[in-house]
Each structure stands twice: as structure tokens, then as C-alpha cells.
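hey so i finally got around to running both of the ones u sent me last week. sorry it took forever, my laptop kept dying halfway thru and i had to restart like 3 times lol. anyway pasting them below in the order u listed, first the sequence line then the C-alpha cell line for each. didnt double check formatting much so if smth looks off just lmk and ill redo it

first one:
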Amino acid sequence: MKYLGLLALAALLSTSALAADKPAPAPSGTYVSDPRHSSVTWKISHLGLSNYTARFTRMKAELVWDTQNPTASKVTVDIDPLSVRTDFPFPEKENFDQEIGTRPDFLGGQPIRFVSTSVKVTGDNRGEVAGDLTFRGETHPAVLDVTFNGSMAEQPMEKVPKVGFSAVAKFKRSDWGVAPKIKSLGDEITVIVETEFAPPEKTAN
């Protein structure tokens, strides 16, 4: 019994030590995406053989974060379609990035914007952020499946509050008026977002 008591005490002390090491959460407030730790990539099926993948290099998001009540939080995301990067291997033959960014049957050269309308908690550190997605000049509902990765009142290296998320959204191009004229490409697009948020005055976008 004495041995079991010692084990219980050791477990309690260990748990207390871990709790003490856990960083304090970031406070409520307005944050913006840190471009050094944020990325937006997307993929689309190519003939069912692979998923063609590209990324955007210019994205800015604003988060109104409510620590006590995450469902009251709001987010707005702006993406420059002309910042699309495909890593096309023959740039001397074709400016494929410009083609993707400007063609009417692709991104159309028009700003991409997501404005949240509601936040729903679906599990531990998981949630759904519903909102309006503007793409090629049309606005329709879209949903982000979000994972809350954590927050810190003071990120140890940057010495500023940080909040981190991963998110995935899936939608059909045809819902935004892009008929699948290019038969080699699928209709569904998957967008993958990784981002850290920091106070606006601490982030250079």
C-alpha cells in the first residue's frame, strides 16, 4: 500500500509539473496572419491519376479571437489569385502561373475572400467555420474544417502572443460558375491552410 501511495504521489507531482510547463493561452483580441508561418495550398484531380498541387504566396487573414468563447470568434481571409505558384517546369515555354491566375476558366484574376459567419465546435480542438467565399466574382457558402493547434501568451522566440490553426476546405468549381470545360481536371478543389496569428503591430505583412 505504501508503494502504491508513493506511485500516486509521483503521478500527481508529474501531472502538476506538466501543467506548470504548459504555456498560458493567448489573450482575446484582434490578430493577423504571420506570413512567415502561413501557407495556402490547393489540389485538384488530374485525370484521376494524381492531384495537381499549387499554392498562393500572398494571403492575409484577420482573426478576432475570443479565448473564453471560440464560437464568438471571427475570421476574414484575403488571397491574391495572381500570387498562384504552380512550379511549372518549363517557364521559358509558358507563363503557366499567369495563365492559371487570369484565365476565366481558372482563377479569373479576381480577389479571393472568405468571411466567416459562424463557428461551431465539433470536438476537442476541432471546429467548423462557415462563411461566404468570394471566388471569380461570385459569392457562395463554404465551410472550413478547422483544427485549433494551440496558443501562447508569449511565443518563446518571438516574445509575442500567437494562435495557430490548420484548416481544410473542399468545394466544387462548378458551384462558382466554372464549368469543367477542361475535362482533364476534376470539379472538386481541396484547399489546405496552415497559419499562425499574431497581434497586428507585431506582424509585418
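and the second one:
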Amino acid sequence: MKGKILLLFFVMIMFTSCQKNSQSITLNSETNSTMNSELEITEGQLEPSNNEVLSMSIGNYDLKGEFYDEMLRNPIDHDYEVDFNEFQNSKKIITTLEWGALESKYIEIWDKELNQIYKKLLSKLDREPRESLIESQKDWLQYHLRETKFVEKTFITNGYLGSKGSVSLSTVIRERIRERTMQLFEYRYLLDGEVEFVYQSEK
């Protein structure tokens, strides 16, 4: 049974690689596909779609989908996509160092945004909800740090994931912080209908 599943997985990968490049895929799968191809980016290899930038898990409580629509226009994802496309369309081989620098840049941007929305949200809450959010954020931060430490010690420092390992981890860290930031944005949106990013697009 396990062998059949592996064979099916292999066939699916082969089929996907043969499809035309015009098929829309998410930034997450683009990044992972890039990492898995030895980081050699060729012109026209991938085509990001603005409509598929966000995971559908964003906007869990806004049943009308208005928050999701707001998040589609967020400036951080916009600039990341521009930078990603510059790498993708580059005629040179992109090194792991350059990919790592790109991911680190957006980790820092999302982290700053997370801190800002967290403070803003705290200022809008009464005492009991505020205390609950503080505890929730502490738990999330502990999970985030412990998960990162586990992957570093188990798969990165021993070279298990090869030269791409540290970049893959950075991509996961960026996505984890991004997702938590958007959760907090949604909480604020539910309170006052506001979506306000501190970061301003540079592109």
C-alpha cells in the first residue's frame, strides 16, 4: 500500500512538471518549487497569481469574505511578489545566500508588522480580553521559537536538508509570522472594520 502511494505521488509530480507554465500556483508552492530545483531560476518558469497569494485559512471569522479581499491588497505580499519575480526572471543563477537574504528581509518586515498590530489590538480590548490575547501571544511565540529550534537542530545543523535547508526554514518562518500577523489583523477588523498596515509599498 505504501509503495502504491509513493508511486502515485511520483506520477503526480511528473504530471505537474509537464503542465504548461501558464497554470496559476500560489507563492508558497512557487517558493518551494524553486527551492527544490537547486535554486536555478529561469525566465518564465513560474507565474504568480495575485488572486492566489493568500491561503484560504485567512479570514476564518469574517463570513462575508471582506477581510480576505482586503488582505489581497496588502503591501507586503505585493512587494515580496515583485522581488520574487525579479529573482525568477533573472538570467543568472540565484544563490542560496541571495534567497536567504530575500526571506530574511520579509521576515523582518512581517515581524515589525506583527508587533504593531499586536499593540494596536491590545489598546482596543478591555481587561479580560486583553489578558487572554497576551497569554495567547505568549503561547504562539513559544511555539514559534520551539518549532524553529527543533527544525534547526534536527534538520539544519546536521545538513540533513542540504544547502537549501536554511533557506527553506526561513521561508517557513516568514509564512508562520505572516499567518499570525493576519490573524491579529482579522481580530482588529472584526472590532472596528479597519485594516491598516504600517509598512508602505516600496515598489
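quick thing i noticed on the 2nd:
Residues 26-192 form one domain.
anyway thats it, ttyl
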